[in-house]
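call fold(seq) -> tokens
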Amino acid sequence: MRLNKLIGLVTALVFTGLIILIAYNNLGGEKPTESQINESLNKSISWLVQNKTAINKENNAMLWWMMEQAWQETHNGDLKNLLEDYREKHYQNYFSSPWSYLIYGYKDRINATQVMAAGMPDYNVFFIYSYSCNADLAEEPIVRQQQELGFCFTKHPISPACITHQMMAFRFMQRTGCRKNPAEISDKIASLASLVKYQLFFDFRVVDVYLQRVLMLLDTGNQQRINPRWVERVLHNQNEDGGWSGFQPILKLGDNRYLGFTTKGISVTAPQSSFHATIQGVWLMALLKNKPL
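ret:
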């Protein structure tokens, strides 16, 4: 009997805690001011500049493509210099790469056999197809499957970024004109945006996927679905050095170690800004600068 009472008490406490965290994630909050967005954007770009040597070694083409999108929104000189330096130093890395489109705009470097043999995550294969519309990749089952709205629930039910990755791929189709039925793509994006809104409502962890969800709602023209509180939390969780990280500290344990949330759960570590999270924050702030809520 005592054990049952203890289990009931713990369950009630956990449930109450979740309700409080969800409420904290959604209630209150005001639309960010222009000065808040500008300050956040400038701080985050400064982080990129200060960490130029380190990020130049990160050959994740999607992140550099996001920087290009941020530059297109802001025409910021520091972003332009970072992009030009990276392109100059890494041309050989992308000369025959299927990712060369994201850095140099080349679509003719894609060999479907090599892409499928590379062991890439599903979403990377879908990205490459979506901006190239490669006829051979179009026949691959994994590419066909990812064009279905139920893909994430059946194939990657616990992946926090699966739905936003789908949205990114569909946006590439819109940008490059892949597929002959743009209305169908728009409808799929709208359906996924509804799911992302629910993810943001219930998932209170302000880690990189949180930024990615807000970012994709804005990039796809679904800013009406964005709760200003979510942007407020993104701003609040920007690190003092100007970057963002994949870790949200909640309790200090000493010696700069914290108990906090990660994309996959809970961890004990020191907060550290990352290129992956920060560049999404940069692009988000660049979009908010031109597309305020």
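The longest helix spans residues 2-26.
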